[in-house]
Amino acid sequence: MRAALQKSRISPDRAFEVKFLKAPHFDPNWHFHSEYQLFIVLRGTGTRFIGDHVTPFTQGDMVFTGPNLPHLWQSGHEYFEGNKDVWTEGIVVYFHEDFLGHEFLQKKEAYQLRQLFGRSQQGVRFIGGTQEKAAKLMEELLQTKDFDGILALLRLLNFLAGSQEYKLLSSADYTNLLKASDTERMNKVHAYVMKNFREKITLDEVAEIANMTPSSFSRYFKTHANKTFSDFLSEIRIGHSCKLLLEKKMDIAEICYESGFQTLSNFNRQFKSVTAYSPLAYRKKYADAGYHP
């Protein structure tokens, strides 16, 4: 199991790293690291975890995360079934805050960049025209070398820093209290939930996976996830139902049970609590647009 903190994702002789990713699925481990990270999904769907924020993701999802903010793009079940016609693609950029020197961010000219880096502590999702143009800049960044790469990265960051087309993801009061051993334990819980959320999951089951008593696990999960396990499980199920509402021609009752809910009334109540829409209103608003809110 991957540990929480890794060796640097940036080569010692480079100021930043940009990589094109292509694999059957995205990295399935919930983790964090010391670098800033800008990531865009070029191909793939699933559930995204940023700090205490959980939501579905689709093609075009672009998120900027700050240092040590836990994150995970969990690909859907179909990406783990060995189907060669299903795979994921993305572009990721890593850099440290001081890649331009320790004093640069304190200068007047770097004010907007400081603001962007501050927002990244919660995770920032870019949307609309900003996402579309930034995606092109990230593709261009892949093709640049040496000092031209630094200039291309600065153009990209300057563009993002000046944009108002973004949404903050994790709660303002979220604090990462995880250690390496915690990350391994939480990964086991995440993996179990993602595999079994369509079925009934009890607190006793997940507590046993975490090697804890149910009461201890409840306190532990609330401390590290900033929400109860019940709320977390509900968000996973609602996220899956959002995907089904947009991707498949299933009626609401079918989606309810396919997503792990036992009654339609509870599904409707939980769905509106999480998304602020009824399932039918959600489908009507977003299905034609082809994206998640």
From TrEMBL:
Top-rank lineage group of the source organism:
Bacteria
Record-linked PROSITE patterns: HTH_ARAC_FAMILY_1 (PS00041), HTH_ARAC_FAMILY_2 (PS01124)
Alphabetical list of SUPFAM superfamilies matching this protein: Homeodomain-like, RmlC-like cupins
Which residues are in the HTH araC/xylS-type domain? 187-285
Membrane is among the record's keywords: no
Q: Which GO terms describe its molecular function?
A: DNA-binding transcription factor activity; sequence-specific DNA binding
Q: Which UniProt keywords apply?
A: DNA-binding, Transcription, Transcription regulation
Q: Is the keyword Transmembrane helix in the record?
A: no
- Pfam families recorded for this chain? Cupin_2, HTH_18
Name this polypeptide is given: AraC family transcriptional regulator
Q: Which organism is it from?
A: Chitinophaga barathri
Task: Kindly list the organism's lineage.
Answer: Bacteria, Pseudomonadati, Bacteroidota, Chitinophagia, Chitinophagales
